Amino acid sequence: MGNLVSDEIHVGDVQTKFLLTIKDGTTVVDVSDPVDSWFIKFEKPDGTLADLVAAFETDGTDGKVFVLSNITTLVIDQAGKWKMQARVGISTTSPASLWYSNVEEFQVFEVL
Fold first, then answer.
1. Is residue 34 part of a domain?
2. Residue range 39-51: mean pLDDT, rounded
3. What is the mean pLDDT of the chain?
């Protein structure tokens, strides 16, 4: 019998964690300061876009933010190549700061 845990993402998966790290060049950005917005934008294979509010993986000092797939706001409903990118905005710095992660691509597979 094979392992029932998969590294693949499938149409209909829920509670899949999408984790991104915010960097300035190669340096991790500490996003633990008061943040006005932290989002992860997803692009589905058909071009549909969705912005989801992200949460810190730890305390924000490591620059890591994530969202979980679910049945209402991030529905994994299309097979194919998806894209995601995090955005963090901090207005308490002078000047205000806005950082983006690299655009990451991932494949979503059909289920049998």
1. yes
2. 94
3. 85
